[in-house]
Structure formats: structure tokens, C-alpha cells
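Design request, C-alpha cells follow.
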């Protein structure tokens, strides 16, 4: 499998969203009659687009609004919201910093210790408003923060790292036992991130309720440049979906996979579902909402790393309300708004009445899909060619 890249060395060809296209179906369906709901841990959610656990995207107010719209927004328990009593002042500093100052400033801001009382407080604020509370931490803090989150009423706990594996070797700290953690947690546990069949299968066997798929594709992530690792999302999602399906056939338990990162426009999201995703997680698309705490800026979760930042602060601008980005009406021509409308219309065009049917869509390799006939858009920097 693969092609020669040098003497005695082969490499597998992998694909990203811009290299593939979806084939229309023989039957089309009215987009208003399509079901895009999905299930995690026995609960059904109406909007399969999750807001990523990034400080420029999700705060308490954003999570509440997202919940009211039928979606989920993940609050980072190691971010600004749990380090500072008044995070608005800190967020303003980040938004006001010059590009040269941004990374150093973010690194210094995240040196402030995490306060456990703020973890409980933030979760309760979301729950008191009637929205689901979804929170995350890295594996090293999962046992400590997971217990606090559970006691505070959180609905889902996310364990997230740049690369997550069942077997982690370290002499400096205790590795998280995923089998034990998932068994003891009384709320669903989502784990990530991974990009391979083998790792997905091993993580599924621990009892997780969901898997995050994607390493390095995020708009503010520089992991692929800094570490040189990552698998393009089309291939990663397809491989991990195959692991999910094998696990389901073997164990009889269906565990959703969530494509995380690399999706800027509605078309990217549609392709993620066609590749096998049950839901998607996006950051930059929601960072552009008026309700987002980043004030038009977005930065990766690994940006504040003290010794090796693997993210950067980018300006995404503020383009509309959260409702407009999810449901429209769209006022932009680039596919970054009315994401649900785009998904339903695409599903109707390929003849898929639900997510499971969308996963069976024919996919073709189409390197010209972004450029064919788009000379005027390219010249004028509008639409697909912005």
C-alpha cells in the first residue's frame, strides 16, 4: 500500500477536504425533511456542529446561547474562564495585543493557576441557564477535574490532547487509565484527538462515548508545522469511521466520531459527514460570532504552551450572530454562514435523509473542485476564492 518516496520507503497518499468532492444522488430530498440529529451517551442533540473548547470561541455566555440553539459548546477547564474571576479584562488584552506581542502575552496569561471553585461556578452558570454543560481537560488533569465537573452537574466530559493514545509512557507523571476513568465517570466521556484506525479501535474499547478526530488541521493550530505530524482530515475521518464500524459490528455499541478541525465552510462540514463523521467540531467558524469571547480573534489550545507553542492568534473578524452562522440567513458569499442550511441542502442533493445515510455518499478525488471555472472569483477574491 502506498507509493515509493525513496529507496526502501513507501508513503500512503492521503487526502484533505479541498481534494475531494461529493457526487449528487439519483434521488434528491427536500432539505426541510432531513434529520441531522445525532446521539451521544444516550441523549439526542439537534445540531451536529459542536463549538470547540477554545478560549476565543467558548465562554459561559456562548455555551448558554449555543445550548439554546440546540447545539453543544465545550468550555475549556484549563483556560481563561477558570483562571480569572473576570475573564473579560484578560480577553480584551489579548484582542488588543500586536501580532508580535500576542504569543508571549498569551503564554504569560496562562501561567495564572486554575481555580477549582471557578470550575464549579462556570458549570453551574451554564446549567442554571438551562443549557447543557460540556467541559474539557487534558488527560493529566482528567481525574481531578472530571470529578469536580461531575459533582457540579456537567453533562459531558471531554478528555483532549494533541495526540491521545491508550498507552502513554511517562516517568514524570501518572498516565490516565482510560478504562478506569470511563468506567467510574457517571457522565459520558469524549476522548481525542486521534487520526488512525488502530488508535481509534483501542480508544473505543476503553468505553468512551465519543471520539474526536483530527491532529493539526485547525485554523489557529501550528502543530503540523512545529511537530511535523498530522493526517489530512478526509483520510483520517474515513480510517477512524472504519474503526467505529468494526467496533459496532463486534461489540454492538455504536460510538459517534466527531471530526475536529479543518472545516472553514459549509462544504467542508458536508464532506466530513460524507467521510463518516457523526458530528463535527469547529472553532474558527464560531470565533467569528458576535457572541464569541475572542472579539474577532482566535487562538489554539496549545498556543500558551510555555516552551513549545503549537498555535497562534489569528484574526477572523466578527461577521454575524451565532444564530446566523448556524441557521442563517447568510449575509456572506463564502459558505461560512448558515452551516445547518448548507448541510441539509447537501444531504438533500445526495439523497441522504439522515446522517447515517450521508456517510454512504459517493466521494471522488477532485483536485480541480476548488478552481474549475472560478477564474472571476479568484481575480475578484470573492466567494470560494477569498
Amino acid at each position: 500500500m502506498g507509493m515509493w518516496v525513496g529507496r526502501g520507503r513507501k508513503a500512503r497518499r492521503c487526502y484533505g477536504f479541498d481534494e475531494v468532492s461529493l457526487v449528487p444522488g439519483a434521488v434528491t430530498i427536500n432539505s426541510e425533511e432531513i434529520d441531522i440529529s445525532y446521539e451521544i451517551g444516550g441523549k439526542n442533540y439537534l445540531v451536529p456542529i459542536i463549538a470547540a473548547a477554545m478560549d476565543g470561541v467558548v465562554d459561559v455566555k456562548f455555551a448558554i446561547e449555543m445550548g439554546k440553539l440546540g447545539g453543544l459548546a465545550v468550555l475549556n477547564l484549563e483556560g481563561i474562564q477558570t483562571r480569572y474571576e473576570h475573564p473579560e479584562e484578560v480577553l480584551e488584552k489579548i484582542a488588543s495585543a500586536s501580532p508580535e506581542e500576542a504569543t508571549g502575552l498569551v503564554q504569560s496569561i496562562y501561567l495564572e493557576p486554575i481555580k477549582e471553585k471557578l470550575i464549579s461556578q462556570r458549570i453551574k452558570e451554564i446549567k442554571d441557564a438551562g443549557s447543557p454543560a460540556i467541559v474539557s481537560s487534558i488527560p493529566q488533569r482528567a481525574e481531578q477535574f472530571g470529578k469536580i465537573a461531575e459533582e457540579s452537574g456537567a453533562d459531558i466530559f471531554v478528555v483532549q490532547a494533541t495526540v491521545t493514545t491508550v498507552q502513554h509512557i511517562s516517568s514524570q507523571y501518572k498516565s490516565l487509565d482510560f478504562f478506569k476513568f470511563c468506567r467510574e465517570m457517571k457522565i459520558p466521556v469524549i476522548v481525542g484527538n486521534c487520526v488512525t484506525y488502530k488508535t481509534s479501535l483501542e480508544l473505543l474499547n476503553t468505553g468512551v462515548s465519543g471520539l474526536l478526530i483530527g491532529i493539526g488541521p485547525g485554523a489557529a493550530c501550528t502543530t503540523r508545522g512545529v511537530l511535523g505530524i498530522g493526517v489530512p482530515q478526509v483520510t483520517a475521518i474515513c480510517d477512524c469511521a472504519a474503526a467505529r464500524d468494526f467496533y459496532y459490528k463486534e461489540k454492538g455499541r455504536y460510538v459517534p466520531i466527531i471530526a475536529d478541525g479543518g472545516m472553514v465552510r459549509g462544504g467542508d462540514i458536508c464532506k466530513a459527514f460524507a467521510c463518516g463523521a457523526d458530528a463535527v467540531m469547529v472553532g474558527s467558524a464560531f470565533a467569528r460570532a458576535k457572541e464569541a469571547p475572542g472579539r474577532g480573534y482566535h487562538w489554539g489550545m496549545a498556543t500558551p504552551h510555555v516552551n513549545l507553542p503549537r498555535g497562534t492568534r489569528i484574526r477572523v473578524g466578527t461577521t454575524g450572530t451565532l444564530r446566523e452562522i448556524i441557521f442563517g440567513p447568510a449575509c456572506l458569499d463564502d459558505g461560512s454562514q448558515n452551516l445547518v442550511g448548507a448541510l441539509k441542502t447537501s444531504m438533500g442533493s445526495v439523497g441522504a435523509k439522515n446522517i447515517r445515510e450521508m456517510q454512504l455518499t459517493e466521494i471522488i478525488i477532485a483536485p480541480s473542485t476548488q478552481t474549475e471555472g472560478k477564474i472571476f472569483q479568484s481575480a475578484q477574491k470573492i466567494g470560494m476564492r477569498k
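Comment from the thread starter after seeing the answer: thanks! DSSP finds 16 helices and 16 strands in the chain.
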